[in-house]
Specification:
Chain lengths: 298, 259
C-alpha cells in the first residue's frame, strides 16, 4: 500500500474536486475578464484588456480600492493591538484556563458571521446599546452615526480577523524557550525589559504572519462591508458584487475579481515566505494556510 | 501577571463577546425591536422564529447542504490525507499546498467563478453547484485535521497488522481508523460548521427557492427588525458553543482551526 501509484489513486478524487470546482472555474472567470462583453451567460466580442485598464485608471474604482486597502490596514493594526495582549495572556495562563480562553479567542470564528453582524447592528444602531448609553450619560444629545459606516466595517472586521492574529502570535510565543526569560530575570531585567528585549522580538515572526493573513482576510471580506457598511459599493468585494448582480457588467466584474485574487494570492505568498523564514517547519507550514477561513467566513 | 495586562485582556474579551451577548439578551426581549438592556423578558420571538417558514425551510436546506458536503468531503479528504502522510512520493509538499488552495482563494471569487463557469457550461442545477462549492471549501479543513492526526499515529501499528497478514484495507479499517476517530470526527464537525455558516459562496450559488439559513437571516433582517433574528441567532450560538466544547474535548480547538 506504500507505492506511489497507490498514492496517486488515493489523491485522484481530491485533485479532480479541486480542478473541477476551483481551477477550471477560476480559469473561466479570468477568460471572461478578457472579453469585451457578454451575451447571456457567455463571454462575447473580441479579446481586450480594457476592463483591467478601466479598473486601474478610473478614479472612482481607484478610490474604492484605496479605501479598502486603508481599512484593511487599520483593521490589521487594531488586530495586532488587541490580539497581542490576548495571545500573551493565553501563553502565560495556567493550563486549566487554556480551554475557556481558546474558546473565547476563537468565538468570532465559531459564531456565524451573520449572527455577529446582527449583534453589531444591535450595538451600533441609532437606537442601539452604545448610543443609548452615550445619550443616557449625556455625552451626546443626538445619536452618533455608528452603523452603516466605514467605522462599523472596521469594527466588525477586526472582530472577525482577531482569532487568526491571536493564533499566529500564540504559535510564535509558544516556540520561545522559557529559559530565555529566566536568564533575563537572573541577569536583572525587569518584566518590561524582558517583554521589549526578549518576548516581543521573538514574537515578531508570529505578528508578521498574523499581519499578512489578517490583511488578506480583510480585503476579501464580503459580508461585513455589505451588512455593516454605508450603502453602495463601499469595499472592493461589494463593488464586485454590484457589477455582477445589479449592473450585469460580468467581464468587468470578473476583471475586478481577478485583481482581488492576485492581491490576495500575493499576500498569502508573502505569508508563506514569512512562515518558512520564521523556521516553522512541517506542522507549522500547513497551519499556515489556515488563512482560508478568510474567504470562507468573512 | 501584571494588572495592566489583565485590564487590557478584559477589554479585548468584552469586545469579542459584546456582539454575541447582546444578541442572546435581545432574543429574550418582549418589545417589537431588539433592545439592550431589554425592558421585559419573553420567549415570544422564539415562537415567532420557529413559526417563520423563511427560517425553518432554509434551516432544513442548510442542514442538508452541510451534511452532504461533509459526507462527500470526508472520504475524499481521508484518502488524500492518508496518501500525503503515509506514502512517500515526489512532489508531496507541492501537492499538499494544492490541496489547501481552496483556503487561500477569496470565497467571493470562488462563488463567482463557480457561478460563471457552471452556468456557462450549462450546469444549471442549484443543488449541484451548491454542494460542489461547499465540498470544495470544507474539504481542506478536513485534510488538515486528518493530516495532523495521522502524523501523530505511529505507522508501526499498521505495519504490524500488515506483517500479521491483514490486507492493507483491513489494517487501515481495524487499526488506523479507530485511532484516527477523534481527529476525523473533529474535522467533520468543523467542516459542518464551515458549510453551515457560509454566506459568500451561497450568496452567488443559491436561488430564491434553494436558500440557506444565513442568507434567510440576512434577507429577513434587511426588512424586519424584530428580535426573531436574535432568537434564531441565539439558537445558532448555542449550537456553536456545543460544537466548540466538543472539538476542544476531541482534539483541541486550535488543531482543528489551524494555528
Amino acid at each position: 500500500m506504500r507505492r506511489p501509484r497507490t498514492a496517486l489513486l488515493l489523491l485522484l478524487p481530491a485533485v479532480i474536486l479541486i480542478v473541477v470546482v476551483l481551477v477550471l472555474p477560476v480559469g473561466w472567470l479570468i477568460r471572461f475578464s478578457l472579453f469585451e462583453g457578454q451575451s447571456g451567460v457567455q463571454a462575447a466580442g473580441g479579446l481586450t484588456l480594457e476592463h483591467y485598464s478601466r479598473a486601474l485608471t478610473d478614479s472612482f474604482f481607484l478610490g474604492i480600492f484605496g479605501r479598502t486597502i486603508l481599512m484593511a490596514l487599520i483593521i490589521t493594526v487594531l488586530a495586532v493591538a488587541l490580539g497581542y495582549p490576548l495571545a500573551h495572556f493565553m501563553w502565560k495562563a495556567p493550563a486549566r484556563w487554556r480551554g475557556p480562553l481558546t474558546i473565547l479567542a476563537l468565538s468570532p470564528l465559531l459564531v456565524s458571521i451573520v449572527v455577529s453582524s446582527y449583534g453589531w447592528i444591535v450595538l451600533l444602531g441609532n437606537r442601539g446599546t452604545i448610543n443609548s448609553l452615550l445619550m443616557w450619560a449625556g455625552i451626546t444629545s443626538t445619536p452618533l452615526r455608528l452603523m452603516y459606516s466605514e467605522f462599523a466595517i472596521v469594527v466588525g472586521l477586526t472582530h472577525i480577523v482577531l482569532p487568526f492574529m491571536v493564533l499566529s502570535i500564540l504559535a510564535a510565543l509558544e516556540r520561545i524557550d522559557p529559559l530565555l526569560a529566566e536568564a533575563a530575570a537572573t541577569l536583572g531585567a525587569d518584566a518590561r525589559r524582558t517583554l521589549w528585549h526578549i518576548t516581543l522580538p521573538l514574537a515578531l515572526p508570529g505578528i508578521g504572519a498574523g499581519t499578512t493573513i489578517v490583511f488578506s482576510i480583510a480585503i476579501s471580506a464580503y459580508v461585513t462591508p455589505a451588512v455593516l457598511g454605508p450603502s453602495g459599493p463601499n469595499f472592493i468585494t461589494t463593488l464586485i458584487y454590484q457589477q455582477f448582480t445589479m449592473l450585469f457588467e460580468w467581464p468587468f466584474g470578473a476583471a475586478l475579481a481577478a485583481l482581488l485574487l492576485a492581491v490576495a494570492m500575493t499576500v498569502v505568498f508573502l505569508y508563506m515566505r514569512l512562515l518558512s523564514r520564521a523556521g516553522a517547519l512541517g506542522a507549522g507550514r500547513h497551519d499556515a494556510r489556515a488563512g482560508g477561513r478568510a474567504g470562507a467566513q468573512a | 501577571m501584571s494588572r495592566l495586562l489583565r485590564v487590557i485582556v478584559g477589554c479585548v474579551a468584552l469586545f469579542i463577546l459584546a456582539p454575541i451577548i447582546v444578541v442572546v439578551v435581545a432574543s429574550f426581549s418582549d418589545t417589537p425591536s431588539p433592545e439592550f438592556p431589554p425592558r421585559g423578558l419573553s420567549l415570544r420571538w422564539y415562537a415567532h422564529a420557529l413559526a417563520e417558514t423563511a427560517f425553518t425551510d432554509s434551516a432544513i436546506n442548510s442542514l442538508w447542504l452541510a451534511s452532504l458536503a461533509t459526507l462527500i468531503a470526508t472520504p475524499i479528504a481521508l484518502a488524500a490525507a492518508y496518501a500525503i502522510v503515509r506514502i512517500p512520493f515526489p512532489g508531496r509538499d507541492g501537492l499538499q499546498t494544492f490541496l489547501l488552495a481552496p483556503l487561500v482563494v477569496p470565497s467571493i471569487v470562488i462563488g463567482l467563478a463557480v457561478l460563471l463557469a457552471f452556468s456557462g457550461l450549462g450546469v444549471r442545477d442549484v443543488g449541484l453547484r451548491l454542494v460542489g462549492a461547499h465540498v470544495l471549501i470544507t474539504f481542506p479543513y478536513m485534510v488538515r485535521t486528518i493530516i495532523a492526526s495521522l502524523a501523530r499515529i505511529d505507522a508501526v501499528t499498521e505495519e504490524a497488522a500488515l506483517t500479521l497478514g491483514a490486507s492493507p484495507l483491513r489494517a487501515f479499517w481495524h487499526v488506523t481508523l479507530p485511532l484516527l476517530r477523534p481527529g476525523l470526527i473533529a474535522g467533520m464537525v468543523f467542516a459542518f460548521i464551515v458549510s453551515f455558516d457560509n454566506v459568500s459562496l451561497s450568496l452567488f450559488l443559491a436561488s430564491a427557492h434553494t436558500n440557506t439559513l444565513p442568507l434567510a437571516i440576512l434577507n429577513y433582517a434587511e426588512y424586519n427588525f424584530d428580535p426573531s433574528v436574535a432568537a434564531v441567532s441565539t439558537m445558532l450560538i448555542a449550537a456553536s458553543l456545543a460544537a466548540a466544547l466538543l472539538l476542544e474535548r476531541l482534539v483541541g480547538l486550535r488543531r482543528v482551526v489551524g494555528g
